[in-house]
Design a protein that fits this description.
This protein is of the alpha+beta class and 241 residues long. The chain has helices at 43-57, 124-129, 131-136, 162-171, 192-202, 225-228; strands spanning 3-5, 14-19, 66-67, 74-76, 83-84, 87-90, 97-101, 105-111, 117-122, 145-149, 159-161, 179-181, 187-190, 207-210, 234-240.
Length: 241
Amino acid sequence: MTLISADWSAPPHIRALTTTRLGGCSEGVYRSLNLGDHVGDAPERVAANRELLRQQLQWQKKPQWLSQVHGTGVVKASGAGVVEADACWTDEVGLPCVVMTADCLPVFFTDTKGGRVAVAHAGWRGLVDGVLEQTLTVFPDPADVLVWLGPAIGPKAFEVGDEVRSQFCDVIAASNRAFVATATPHKWLADLYQLARLRLNAAGVQQITGGQYCTFSQTEQFFSYRREGVTGRMASIIWIT
């Protein structure tokens, strides 16, 4: 199993990582570590992959899985069943918070003392609607928050239309820097990482790392919905040890 650990200055008792598509038992378009149970993969293979992950990370508590809707809902993790939301947080030791992605941006949060953690699923809709700002509300002081941007579709692969660009620029005018015009009229390449940084900076967060991966172009490492259509999901996970 190949995992990517967060590259940030969080306290050592905070674990934050993203899975790749490598190291599981799913087959075909879901090869191999698909952790999404909503994408058409055989349920027994998804269950086996989740058990492999549990054993690898030696969890003692059930993780909080979410039913994601590209919204701004944030819940406190309990590990009791699946909850509809796009971000979750906890201050409980040993309780993993999880979001799943296959091009959307996973965003990890903790404070400088590591007293609480959160992770958010930020596609462009959730990002423009404020899922990151909503997640920040569970922390007393945004200036004390550390953020890591996990693997997402990169700025050379994410093509959007005028309507997406205008929604971001209507909120933060400087967002125009995150869009590059293509040869096709009314089409732009969008930088999700830069858009997230702008939103986080505006909310008071200054300590932001990550943003070097591209799920679309790194085909052997990552699932990509935009590249493949029917595909698996990676999990982005954070917990307090």
